[in-house]
Amino acid sequence: MPKIEHVAMYCHNLETIKEFYEKYFGCKSGEKYTNSSKGFESYFISFEDGSRLEIMSKTAINESIKPAEYLGLTHLAISVGSKENVDNLTKRLRNDSFEVIGNPRTTGDGYYESVVLDPEMNRIEITI
Questions:
Q1: Cβ atoms of 45 and 28 closer than 8 Å
Q2: Fold classified for 1-60
Q3: Is 77 helix (H, G, I), strand (E, B) or coil?
Q4: Binning pLDDT at 50, 70 and 90, where does residue 19 land?
Q5: CB-neighbour burial class of residue 3 (10 A; exposed 0-12, middle 13-18, buried 19+)
Q6: 47 CB neighbour count, 10 Å cutoff
Q7: Could you tell me if 112 and 14 are in contact, meaning their C-beta atoms sit under 8 angstroms apart?
Q8: In sequence order, what are the beta bridge partners of 53?
Q9: Out of 3.40.50.280, 3.10.180.10, 3.90.1150.10, 3.40.50.300, which CATH number does the structure's domain 74-128 have?
Q10: Residues paired with residue 123 on neighbouring β-strands, in sequence order
Q11: Most confident stretch, 16-20, 47-51, 67-71, 73-77
Q12: What Cα–Cα distance (Å) separates residue 13 from each residue in 43, 44, 66, 70?
């Protein structure tokens, strides 16, 4: 049966992003992988259910401006188990000066979620 093994994203500050997902989502990171000849470093960040996010940095990366909505992958949705957990984590992130761009609410398709930006402005949906 096919499944998504992991999702990967490039970032500017690998350690900051690693610490964000560990602190707020309880993720565990593996050992840092470094390929000096390519100027590449990465961590696999594991969630409790086994899903993984690979965060990567590279000395020569093509940067582009990311508008709020664009073609391609647009957000990462992370389930935190309950409406109360969505509310509490959203409040905690706001209090820690992260931008909440969507307050907790029930969407038209029935999801209860909020939307926050991680330290590098990636959209994170926090949902049940």
A1: yes
A2: 2,3-Dihydroxybiphenyl 1,2-Dioxygenase; domain 1 (3.10.180)
A3: strand
A4: very high
A5: exposed
A6: 15
A7: no
A8: 7, 45
A9: 3.10.180.10
A10: 117
A11: 16-20
A12: 12, 15, 17, 23
CA–CA gap between residue 110 and residue 62 (Å, rounded) = 37
Checking phi first, is residue 41 left (phi over 0); if not, alpha (psi -120 to 50) or beta? Answer: beta
Reply yes or no on whether the pLDDT at 72 is more than 80: no
| Residue range 58-67: mean pLDDT, rounded | 71
Distance from C-alpha of 50 to C-alpha of 40, rounded to nearest angstrom: 24
> In whole angstroms, what is the distance from residue 126 CA to residue 47 CA?
14
- Residue 22 identity (one-letter amino acid): E
Q: How far is CA 101 from CA 5, 60, 94, 119, 125, in A?
A: 28, 30, 10, 13, 10
Q: Is the pLDDT of residue 63 over 90?
A: no
Q: Which residue has the higher pLDDT, 19 or 60?
A: 19
- pTM comes to 0.89
